């Protein structure tokens, strides 16, 4: 069973930065597209950013230019660098691994990000 463990969330002031990490285990990294999603209270879970093993990235319009997704294949870890954070970025952030062959999705437990003064 694929395991995803997120870390790096917390409380930050508007304009600040955070870096989220997602450590994957029991996974052949190249067989998956990795991503970050978020869910704010009372809202549906939404895509934040994705990255393929070839390095292609995709971002939600709301985070373009502020967030950067990256991965370290040797460490089987995906990162989300979040800069210029806004209160509307407040949400639980979830790591996702999407199997390119089976179409199955795996999720981490989530990490809380709160942007507030």
Question: How would you describe this protein?
Answer:
It is a single chain. The chain has 117 residues and is mainly beta. The protein has no helices and eleven strands. The strands form two sheets. Strands 2, 4, 5, 6, 9, 10 and 11 form a seven-stranded mixed β-sheet that branches. It has a four-stranded antiparallel β-sheet with strand order 1-3-8-7, with no helix packed on it. It is globular. The model has no long low-confidence stretch (mean pLDDT 95).
Question: Which residues sit in consecutive blocks of at least 5 with pLDDT less than 50?
Answer: none
Beta-strand portion reads over 45%
Number of strands: 11
Helix content: under 10%
Could you tell me how far the N terminus lies from the C terminus, measured between alpha carbons in angstroms? 40 Å
Order of helices and strands: EEEEEEEEEEE
Structural class: mainly beta
Average residue-wise pLDDT: 95
Q: Tell me about the largest β-sheet.
A: 7 strands, mixed
Rg result = 13 Å
Shape: globular
> What is the count of helical runs?
0
Summarize the structure in short:
The chain has 117 residues and is mostly beta strands. Helix content is 0%, strand content 53%.
Quick tags:
single chain, 117 residues, mainly beta, four-stranded antiparallel β-sheet, 0% helix, globular
């Amino acid at each position: 069973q694929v395991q995803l463990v997120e870390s790096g969330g917390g409380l930050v002031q508007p304009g600040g930065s955070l870096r989220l990490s997602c450590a994957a285990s029991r996974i052949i990294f190249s067989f998956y597209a990795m991503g970050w999603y978020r869910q704010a209270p009372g809202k549906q879970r939404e895509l934040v950013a994705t990255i393929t093993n070839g390095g292609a990235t995709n971002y939600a319009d709301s985070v373009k230019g502020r967030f950067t997704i990256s991965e370290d294949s040797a460490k089987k870890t995906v990162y989300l660098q979040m800069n210029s954070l806004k209160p509307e970025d407040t949400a639980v952030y979830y790591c996702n691994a999407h199997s390119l062959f089976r179409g199955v999705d795996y999720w981490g437990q989530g990490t809380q990000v709160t942007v507030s003064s």
